[in-house]
Amino acid sequence: MAPKTRTPILLESLIPIIILIIFLSINVWIFSDDSSYGANQVALIIAAAVAGLIAIRLGHTWKSILEGIVDSISSAMSAMLILLIIGALAGTWMISGIVPAMIYFGLEVLSPTIFLFAACIVSAVVSIATGSSWTTAATIGVALMGIGGAMGISEGVVAGAIISGAYFGDKMSPLSDTTNLAPAMAGTELFTHIRYMFYTTGPSIAISLLIFLIWGFTLDANAGVDDVAVVQSAISSKFNINLWLFLVPLAVVVMIVKKVPAIPALLLGSLLGALFALVFQPDIVMSITGSSGFSGKSAYEGIMRAVYGDISIVTGNESVDELLSSSGMKGMLNTIWLIITAMIFGGVMERAGFLKRIADAIIGFANSVGSLVASTAATCFVFNVTASDQYIAIVVPGRMYSQTYRDRGLAPENLSRTLEDSGTVTSVLVPWNTCGAYQSGVLGVATLTYLPFCFFNIISPFMTILFAYLNIKIRKLDKKQEEKVMA
Hints:
Largest sheet: 2 strands, antiparallel
Oligomer: single chain
Mean pLDDT: 84
Distance between the termini: 22 Å
């Protein structure tokens, strides 16, 4: 006979989240940008323990709670495997010259007369190539800030253009951790999420680029080209830059369009990157091992190091050196750690009925698809403000609303898109959020100074809400998905 359990009241359901927010706030205060590298994971475990104690008090058994944790982690297993493969892909694409080539040709569009427009595009290209808005800001972003300053353009506007492009690329890149995290929380596939997200992301970046283009033509910009040439020269001095390198990402794009599953598509992309590294960049592969001559042993060692560990290509330009580095599979372990602890917390909260109770209280005011999406977007932003971490702003709302979207016959990609359109992009607009603090520190511009000019980040959440209210591209559950939910 199953033990009798009591339905939690709203306060009981909120206590673990309140505890979590308190610890996350303390972590940001003490650890600042490093809070996501261990402290937040511990906070999630503590909050999960508190949730577990309350769940036991409500009549749940430890066995039942553990089953909830295991089920929750299992649901994110695919995303964690993808992250490991993405780490390998990032390494092989770096040493093969694919990522450097994307950066090199991306800088070609930079023109003094359309600087803001071009800065946004360059940042987007680099962010798509690296999968990281943080890396983009710390490398190309810093260079663009210097160029913009030399042209006499307001630092807030330049930073806004950089951040807008960087977060567009971060959202649309399969290499991005948040782009993998959002579909994992919602219960959809990576490439399905990316394709569906473009419906709202495309118009948002188009409007942003139009604003920057019009703004740019009002400026008198005649300098800064030399700085771009320095970056390109540093890249070309180490890599054999050519258009053949783009065959690999093109192959991955074709596989995405053909709906090849993410794991085999990305694995093949990683292997092709290793092959192209041996063909086009043998000197780079040898430099990783410190070997002076090419040999089968050194080639194998160089490829393996790029796949699993830290590599850095030394050009003599410190900013470019930071850009031309990768951490391979090892670099993804912290994100996987975060996902596991987040799923532990989500598993306890879900099994005890806490997430459902909180969601029911909010959803009681959401009578339409538009109001449901608006509630989700608002929840993500609130967590960015209170929890000060973009990962938490994706994980917790994702677990809170996933069942509700299904109950209303909405495909999970509606939720994953909303999580990214509101959770990922608004994190950088909050001064005390880890993203806001990081971007402000790296670019040397106060958060509130660049905030009004981050047009993409401001437009995105409103765009996803607008699409929901107008019932544009709101996908319903198909029969297979409905059967899966019922099962």
